[in-house]
Amino acid sequence: MSEPLQPVIVGAGPAGIRAAERLVRAGLRPIVLDEGQRAGGQIYRRPLIEDGRSYRSRYGSEAGKAQRLHETFEALLPEIDYQPETLVWNISAPKRGNQLDILSSGVHRQIGFSQLILCTGATDRVLPFPGWTTPGVYTLGASQTVLKAQGCTIGDRVVFMGSGPLLYLVAWQYMKAGARVEAVLDTAPVTSKRHLLSLAVHAPRIVALGLFYGLQLQLAGVRIRCGVRPEAVLGKGQVEGLRFRRRTLKGDVVETIACDALAYGFALRPETQLADLAGCRFRFNERDRVWLPERDTMGRTSRPDVYVAGDGSGIAGADAAEISGELAAAALLQDMGQRSADTTRLMEARDAILRQRDILERAFPFPDDWIETVPDETMLCRCEEITIAEGRRAIANGSVTEINRLKALSRVGMGRCQGRMCSAAAAELLSAACGTSAGAVGRLRAQAPVKPIPLGFGASAGTETRS
Amino acid sequence: MSMHAQFRRRYRLDETPVPFTLNGVLETGRRGDTVLTAILSVSGRLRQSEFTGEDRAGFCLIGACQDCYVMLANGSRVRACSTALLPGMAFITDLDAMAGAAHE
Prior knowledge:
The complex is a heterodimer. Chain A has 13 helices and 23 strands. Chain A is an alpha/beta fold. Mean pLDDT of chain A is 93; it is low at 457-467. Chain B starts with 7 loop residues before the first strand and ends with a helix. Chain B has one domain (17-93): Ubiquitin-like (UB roll). The chains are: A alpha/beta, B alpha+beta.
């Protein structure tokens, strides 16, 4: 086959759609591979069928952005090769040519690319605590997704716990949808909220919205607590309540709240496996305690034909993702010799958002003392069902100081999720045991397939099984 | 045992019913449901974990955690959060109940 190779964009969220738009405007025809059934990504995810809700009802304050992005994508469809329900599960090493292994609606294929823009997004960052695998415990993002895309709530009487603006937003959305919000438990200490004052100067809209949600929840009688650490999910086989501790001026107070579902999470963690398989160099980001692909201000990685954009290149939110998608496409075009006039303006807009993120992180800090207080019998890895005790024992017995060594000895990160749900905890556990920073324990290497694929497909990799 | 429904439907209540079976029992989902929504709207579990046998009902709901695999009656498995419900699908979320039924 000697067809000319096309640029490939992985992901059809805010970053992927804006990247595609920019390439199309320059006369290119990108292939857009999307794991979702419909473009929009997770933040602007659409339901499988329309359910009578307006954009306003589904996306709230972000309705305008969601609608514009969806309309942009629909208009692009004749100009791009869009493949929904398509998983990219491997990227050939650079020496073996530009090949992606994809699984598309059950069919395995390899496709080539001239350049690759990875817009792989993010998942919730979670930490383990006793009972977190109980049915009825979901990530914060999950609780929002199922309401947005399926019109369901994760329970009738729901507790929300964690940190970040999403906590108050989702609790409010649940209240509006008719669920009973039993409590909003903020793991950040109340004193950290002083940073919202400086955020109000830079991003008054974010602060105003947060205050609005918080106030409406309080007016409805919802309990809001700060400085919370969970002790345990109550109930076996189903959620019956949550026991938690909270720091007060008079010392720690233990409280119990009855509920039938819990949503929790601590901001997001980027999906970087494909950049890893592509051979991109990584660097540890101290603020987000995570390894990110090295990139320049426009999204060029250490590999000349691979670009990254959106939350998968570093958590910055949907608005920044739209801009970084456009910038990555502009970088690709520049590298082909095309000039782009407006990149300075785009970078300034993106940098303004990044400055807001710095303040947000201080207002909603990661609970870095968390892992030390998790009891031994708690599940660390929910796929392989490895406990914290087993993790700690592997570290001690093997004198482990490196995360891939911990994986080899304990199987943490080796299960179906490939470390997506446990790698943050494993890194915190190991760095706490070693008395080092989270970055010093190294980076969990990605393995193909990045997500489970049906047996038989992997075995036939390398052969064209186009049907 | 978890016979309670975990999820609560808030929209699409009057959407076209889609029949499926859960551990041999006829249930009804709605057009536009994922497998996960259909099952958790009538039950509190999707599977039992491999090593401890504890009930699981999904976690991330965006195809990342791989916690929501559900067994079909033909022995194959689907990731419930990212699979659309089709009429006539047959799910097994309780191997003990099915084994008991087979002996009767």
